[in-house]
Amino acid sequence: MSMLHLTYQVPGDDFTRAGEASSDVKHKLKKLGYDPDAIRRVAIAMYEGEINMVIHAGGGEAIVDIDPDRVEIRLEDQGPGIADVEQAMQAGWSTAPDNVRTLGFGAGMGLPNMKKYTDEMTVDSQVGVGTTVFMKVFPGKKE
Amino acid sequence: MKVKEIVEILKAEILCEGNLEEEVKTACGSDMMSDVLAFVKDQSVLLTGLMNPQVVRTAEMMDMHCIIFVRGKKTDNSVVDLARQKDITVLATPYRMFTACGLLFSNGLRGGCDIS
Lengths: 143, 116
Hints:
A: alpha+beta, 5 helices, 5 strands, globular, B: Udp-n-acetylmuramoylalanyl-d-glutamate--2,6- Diaminopimelate Ligase, Chain: A, domain 1, 35% helix
């Protein structure tokens, strides 16, 4: 069992609410006195993931486990899945519709940003079934 | 420079007042929030023409304390309300993006991401 176990439902139909879960995690980590660099990396990676779930998958679930030596973030959705994960990981590759771009996202930077800011990341996806992204951030590592 | 100096330089209207005495050194100008999120280096000011609550969320995740809407855009309450909750200053300047960035740069604000 982790020190702090959190679960959030990320609503898929309301773009304006995307980021609430990440905001709450950031707030809780701050309260715990967590390493500021790790807090920012967790916040950005999870926020990009939340936006992805809203844009592509009709929402999903975020499960966060916080321990003194690590933060683990699991993002699960039952969306359309990613046909080619390797391609999706390339900066600039995007399947987001144009209306998402007018909202400031869909530049193909989501998954690359998530990888950049986390210490470990795996993407498990099946077309027609859904996607699970699992990320780990260790305080004191990277940058 | 202080946030209150930005208000003067950009002839800006204060839509949400946070800490105007705060010292800021670096800024970032973009309408793509993922680009803002891609280059995190202690930037404290965000200039943008985009106007939705995700601008405030992005600033929050990046620990930015001042958002400047360019081209004289007026925002709706949802943006200002969220900024108030997060203690983020929101300004609106009549200048367009290029000019607003140029004015701040020539007054000493920097980008914070030097290319290597």
